[in-house]
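Hey team,

Filing this mostly as a record. A colleague (T.K.) asked me to run one chain through the structure pipeline before their review meeting, and I want the input and output archived in the tracker in case anyone asks later how it was produced. No errors, nothing strange. Just documentation.

Input sequence:
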Amino acid sequence: MLPPLNKKFSFIIKTAFFTTALLAVLLYLFTPKPDITQPNAYSTAFYDSSGKLLRLNLAADDRYRLWTPIDKIPLSVQQATLLYEDQDFYEHTGVDFIALINAFYTSYIKRSHRVGASTITMQVARLHFGMNTHVIFGKVEQILRALQIERHYSKNQILEAYFNLAPYGSNIEGVGAASLIYFKKPAIDLNLPESLLLSLIPQNPTKRNPIKKSAKLVLLETRKKLFTRWLEKYPEDKHWLAAMQLPIKVYASSDLPFEAPHFINNLQSEYPHLKPGEYKTSIDLNLQNLLQRHAKNYINRRQRDGLSNTSAILLNYKTMEVVAELGSVDFFNNDISGQVNGVRAKRSPGSTLKPFIYALAIDEGLIHPLTLVKDAPKRFGGYTPENYDQQFLGPISATESLVLSRNVPAVNLMYRLQKVGLYDLLVAADVKKLQPKEFYGLALALGGSEVTMLELVKLYAMLANLGVYKDEVILKKDAAVINQNNPNSPNNPNNPNKHIKQLISPEAAYLTLQMLSKNSAVDEISFQKERRQAYPVYWKTGTSFDFRDAWSVGIVGPYVLATWVGNFSGEGHPSFIGRQAAAPLFFEIIRSLDSYGLIKGNIKPGGLNITEVDICSTTGDLPNVHCPKTEKGLFIPGKSPIKVSDVHREIYIDKASGLRACQYDEFTTTKAVYEFWPSDLVRLFKQAGIVKRQPPPYLDSCLINNTSTQGSAPTITSPSNLISYTIRASKLKQESLPFSATTDTDSRILYWFVDNSFVGKVERDTPFFWHPQVGEFDVRVVDNLGRSASVSMRVKLVQ
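Output structure:
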């Protein structure tokens, strides 16, 4: 019998015991809460709009580790893992002490074989804190950390952490990444055979890596045993018995998709502060593949013509989602700098900006679609634009001018804009990296600035949205995305404060679209060239200076489509012409969209202030009583020009002489209708081989007081009151300024006056050269019939 303990010694032992117990309780109660999800780095997964994986990025530590919440991990995975790893997970407090004692006895006392006794919580502790549990101190720390974790987290939170940290072979960690890589599906879609397979890997991820041939047989056999245990608990799953006998079909990380690479790269560059996670993008993988397929086939066919690269984008203007983006025909082709994103690169747009000049001119009341414009040589200060074909067509409608991409009428309209110019529109549409307005001048109308393809399609989307400009959408509005980012941050792609602006009136936008719809389709296949599609295409081509860029951009169904052909090096080629190089691919893609039934709906003018009126077919103005033929045209009441045509006029002809009489006499005169065109248009008609019947001159008996009130006064085209002219002091005597004017058809001679002093006369259509002086002057012209016009001019002296 042992002697009784000394009272003092007994007190010390009891005190030590209770102190230790108290410290243990206090430590348990007040131990800090560890973050069992950090500081581990996680991957980012990008999906298309329907949930198909586009790319899975490596985490910062070069591992595939995708955070997956517990509600996205199927019960079959959870139950299979607990059945195999930790059946008493919901009963113990993080450590199964009985199992630990048994494992210690079997492994170190009996030494029969190694037995593990780590619970799920203990494995979370080991994985998160990276401890070595093969030594005694590491095992003790693991136990203490497990108790700490259980103190602060629920069972579901611990299980969630485990499934995001567990190793699944190679550099794959977490069930989310494992499911995407091995089975090409999100974890929530795993079936029972796949769930059982994944539950086996973390116990020995090196030997059980399903990619290894040596591991497959072991995994298959082990899964059969686990399935037997599973059926004991879940007998209703017997129908999976046949599936369990099938071979294991898994994929490697090298099989991961790399879709829409330019789009994803740009997304990550544009939003560098996106936290790791899963993001659903605006891309439709089916449409992305459609663009890729057509682009590749097209370039392969056209290589003999010097075409080696193309870019394309498809944007749904109703949702403003970029549904397909092709930065180059081959991302991995270094010969064409394939990794450059042509959709986001600045390029000269050629004539693709012309529709917006016409839209602004319609908004300002300068034209309507059938207004007659002059395609004739014209000088704007020191700038003399030419047409692509170096020809001039004379008087044509505004619609024909836009469709045929005539340069001079477009520049002239831009020159006449007073309220909002093309440059102002580009600024309002957030076109980046613009030079000062003065840098471009009137060359802006012909592609003097640079824009990206995305900026261009957003402008066309503005037309489709009847003048309302909106930003593009590249990420779906998903709650998970917003929760991970400040919703009001400028770096958040779902920022609700993005701009929505009315840049053009709905009426002007709609009329511009109708003009663009008159542009006939092109097709490489001869028998389809005459085919008229059942849906409208509102489109335009463009060719930049020196044949560096060929464009085709337009609206069809719910989409804005743009195609570009060129070289990222900027090297030009004679084949890089919009209608010949970019348009065929443009229409190939459209026909393919149509074959899939994706071109639905049309832009309708409901509620717009637009009226259909009769227009004189010859002149583009409202018809007078003598207009021989009219056609229906669209008109904006209160805005569109309401000039009544005066080209067709009834005059009186003297029966005896055939000359023009001043007044009507039923016995000596007869009535006849003539066309009175401005003199510059008469000259253009002659150049085009069109002979207009000229009205005869007046009888000598007609007084100037009678003739001056008939017809139209001259229009001075030079000098302009908008320009300050300069003369050089060193060559003062040699300097001269041209005076010119357009006149009515019946004018013959022009008389020029400066400050009411006669300075000379010339025949119609002939410029008069005046030797200038310094100062401000009134310039006046009078034709031989007494009709006059005047302008003010300023002349400055420079050294």
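Quick notes for T.K.: Residues 80 and 531 are 62 Å apart (CA to CA). The first helix runs from residue 7 to 30.
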